[in-house]
Design brief:
By secondary structure, the protein is of the alpha/beta class.
Length: 265
């Protein structure tokens, strides 16, 4: 463990094929780096079932979300909604999502994305679990839909937040928590986020890797593989702590306490 810190990765895609061959080793490396607990992201029904199986097999180490990413929104049906409700029943399934809007890729028609997003927000309100949120190039519609449902929701976290102060203020006004990834370590694309990070209230901040995606750009020595791993959450935590002018121990304690409270770990 790194300096005795205790970190929680709130967004790791451990069902990804990149981890199929060596997941036990990935979990062991994460634990040695201080990342002893992780929330596995569900992005469609099949992936959510896989995430649930992983969480069930690793009690006290893994939890998961269950939901349908906007990329898969076109296939979301009333039958899928019923299945999603069933998937959300176990205690270790701690949030609805990853759900939201993605107008950058537009892998599903925008109308279908909005419909699936609203349906999952209604499910989250009904089951009393928070939402794990995705938004890319769809800020205005995302905020409008979320604002309509927010009073009934147990909570929400803006997963992989990459925006600047203005976007941050809009999310804070909706009483969202903010998930920060290794995007903050990118001196090219992450400038807006680096400006926003010091402005995130201490009780709203959480950290995540989004592994195997978003390998921190400034890792030294540079890994031979482009695969991101939960073990690199410690590097992200140090970067966030430096930007906020806080000791790493304080940042770790704060973000971990927030994740425990938010997800009910």
């Amino acid at each position: 463990m790194t300096n005795g810190i205790d970190l929680i990765d709130i967004g790791a895609n451990l069902t990804h094929q990149e981890f199929a061959a060596d997941l036990p080793a990935v979990l062991a490396r994460a634990a040695r780096a201080g990342v002893r607990r992780q929330v596995v992201t569900g992005a469609d029904l099949a992936g959510s079932r896989h995430a649930s199986a992983l969480a069930s097999a690793h009690p006290g180490v893994l939890w998961c979300t269950a939901g349908v990413h906007p990329h898969h929104a076109a296939a979301f049906s009333p039958g899928d909604a019923a299945q999603l409700r069933e998937l959300l029943a176990p205690r270790y399934v701690v949030a609805v999502g990853e759900c939201g809007l993605d107008y950058f890729r537009d892998f599903s028609p925008r109308a279908a994305q909005r419909e699936a997003f609203a349906a999952q927000l209604a499910i989250a309100a009904a089951v009393g679990k928070p939402v794990f949120l995705h938004q890319r190039d769809a800020h205005q519609d995302f905020v409008a839909i979320l604002a309509e449902h927010r009073p009934a929701l147990a909570g929400g976290v803006a997963h992989c937040f990459t925006g600047g102060p203005r976007e941050l203020e809009a999310y804070l006004a909706l009483d969202l928590s903010i998930g920060v990834t290794g995007w903050v370590c990118d001196e090219r694309r992450g400038l807006d986020l680096r400006t926003a990070v010091p402005r995130i209230p201490a009780d709203r901040l959480m950290i995540e890797t989004d592994a195997p995606y978003l390998l921190p750009r400034d890792l030294e020595p540079r890994p031979s593989s482009r695969r991101n791993e939960p073990k690199y959450l410690a590097h992200i935590a140090h970067t966030v702590a430096a930007l906020r002018g806080e000791p790493i121990e304080a940042l770790a304690a704060c973000t971990t306490a927030n994740a425990v409270r938010f997800f009910g770990l």
